[in-house]
Design goal:
Elements (H helix, E strand, L loop, with lengths): L6 E3 L2 E3 L6 E6 L4 E7 L3 H19 L3 H17 L1 H12 L3 H25 L3 E4 L2 E7 L2 E5 L5 H15 L2 E5 L5 H13 L7 E3 L4 H10 L5 E5 L2 H12 L4 E5 L5 E4 L5 H13 L11 E5 L3 H15 L9 H16 L3 E4 L15 E4 L6 H4 L6 E7 L2 H8 L8 E4 L3 H8 L8 E2 L17 E2 L4 H6 L2 E7 L1
Helix pairs in contact: 1-7, 2-4, 2-5, 2-6, 3-4, 3-6, 4-5, 9-10
């Protein structure tokens, strides 16, 4: 796609107040592929004012019409699926097949789900002698990450539109082209001017201005826990609502009765997916001591098969971060059985698929989010020990349990302190709530629970 040299505000592409630009770099070859505006606080203010002006009309639009605009948006995304996939591959480095299936395919499904929810959600209900109204919360400041650029946008913008909110989106500076393409799709779908606005820019400038703007009623942020704390502090000063989807260090618990080979192979694939840049990745594999050596051998062999099949990480900064964690793991006594800190290619920001064995629960690589293709394999003595290890981090975003008997897996999953657990490789469900316990976040995305984040409640007594 051709990059826009303006910001999408009030239904049109407009010049940014600042002349600063962001260079978009292809992680696979380190070449600059585009330049986009670096919007500043003034641009954010203009966008918020446009959103506030458009809010009353959109909030008053019947849910059926909002559903129709979302259905139209889904149809535009379907028609431009190839372009979406190519754009994500260009700026994120994702392999083309993965870009088609996941980076383009999943957001289409999520957009479709909200087209249906907008038409069927009970925005009014009777409770005794009261009528309870579920009304749009107002103007939403959406701040999205780079790892799933379109999915994260749709997971915020689609429910906000369904709820009747107006939106200002500040996408990650590493992947702004996908956001520009989405703005084109919103325009083509006939969403009224001002209801959706896009300001590309840097987090400490445009992101901070959006989070603390008095005209924003809800800040929805996906990213690191450290930045989430900062967003919460900024929003808290104005007592505005926040929805935070943050980091993870998810446990993949393989109980002794499980199909070990299947559990290990699916677990490795989960970690290597998207070059390990997935907040919900099962980066800690927990295996019973009697099966530990076999599981390590299976994991090492599975990781080795990936080789050049995974793409680069998003930036040189991210590559160096991941390498630093690998080096720290070695320094703390973990044993490399696959991969390592050395880059597999001379050009591009690639990291070798890496597996650590002999990892203890207190090691840095078992406690902190690495956000790269790095798996740690930990041994446990019994089920209580596995539960202690699984729950023994500050995070609680996702996880998995494998067992020969489904009821056994469910019983263990019920005791895990985490927001989402896959049982024996359960399939992704775009209607199921996604979000974390503990320092993995506040609130939920997807489905009806995701829609509820953008609504506020009023009761009328009769």
């Amino acid at each position: 796609m051709k990059a826009h040299d303006g910001l999408y505000i009030d239904g049109a592409w407009r010049p940014a107040a600042s002349r600063n630009v962001i260079e978009v770099v292809n992680p696979a070859d380190e070449q600059v592929v585009a330049r986009v505006p670096a919007g500043d606080a003034g641009d954010v203010d203009t966008a918020v004012r446009a959103a506030r002006a458009a809010l009353p009309g959109w909030a008053a639009t019947p849910p059926a019409e909002r559903a129709a605009r979302l259905a139209a948006l889904r149809d535009v995304l379907v028609a431009r699926k190839d372009e979406i996939a190519e754009t994500v591959t260009l700026e994120l480095g994702s392999p083309p097949q993965f870009s088609q299936a996941v980076h383009a395919g999943v957001p289409i499904a999520v957009a479709g789900s909200y087209a249906e929810l907008a038409a069927t959600h009970p925005f009014e209900e009777k409770v005794g002698n009261s009528t309870v109204l579920h009304e749009p919360i107002g103007v939403v400041g959406a701040i999205t990450p780079w790892n799933y650029p379109l999915h994260q946008i749709v997971a915020k913008v689609a429910p906000a539109l369904a709820a009747g909110c107006a939106i200002v989106l500040k996408p990650a500076e590493d992947t702004p082209l996908t956001a520009q393409l989405f703005a084109e799709a919103v325009h083509e779908a006939g969403v009224p001017a001002g209801v959706f606005n896009l300001v590309t820019g840097l987090g400490p400038v445009a992101g901070q201005a959006l989070a603390e703007h008095p005209g924003v009623d809800l800040v929805s942020f996906t990213g690191s826990t450290a930045v989430g704390r900062r967003i919460g502090a900024l929003a808290g000063g104005a007592v505005k609502k926040v929805a935070l989807e943050l980091g993870g260090k998810s446990a993949n618990v393989i109980l002794p009765s499980a199909d070990l080979a299947k559990a290990v192979n699916v677990g490795v694939a989960n970690v290597m997916s998207n070059s390990g840049q997935t907040c919900s990745a099962w980066t800690r594999m927990l295996v019973h001591r009697d099966q530990y050596d076999e599981a390590v051998a299976l994991a090492a062999a599975a990781a080795a098969r990936y080789g050049d099949r995974i793409g680069p990480v998003v930036s040189a900064r991210q590559r160096d971060r991941v390498r630093g964690y690998i080096e720290k793991g070695v320094a703390e006594g973990a044993r490399l059985v696959a991969g390592g800190p050395e880059s597999p290619r001379e050009t591009g920001w690639f990291v070798s698929p890496t597996v650590f064995a002999d990892v203890t629960a207190d090691m840095t690589v078992a406690q902190e989010e690495i956000f790269g293709p790095v798996l740690t394999v930990l041994r446990y003595e019994d089920e209580e020990d596995a539960l202690r290890i699984a729950n023994g981090t500050v995070y609680g975003l996702a996880g998995a349990v494998w067992a020969g008997d489904e009821a056994e897996a469910v019983a263990f999953a019920r005791r895990m302190d985490t927001g989402q657990v896959d049982i024996n490789g359960g399939r992704f469900n775009p209607l199921a709530p996604f979000g974390g316990y503990k320092q993995s976040g506040v609130g939920r995305e997807l489905g009806g629970h995701g829609l509820a984040e953008y609504l506020q409640t009023k009761s009328l007594q009769f």
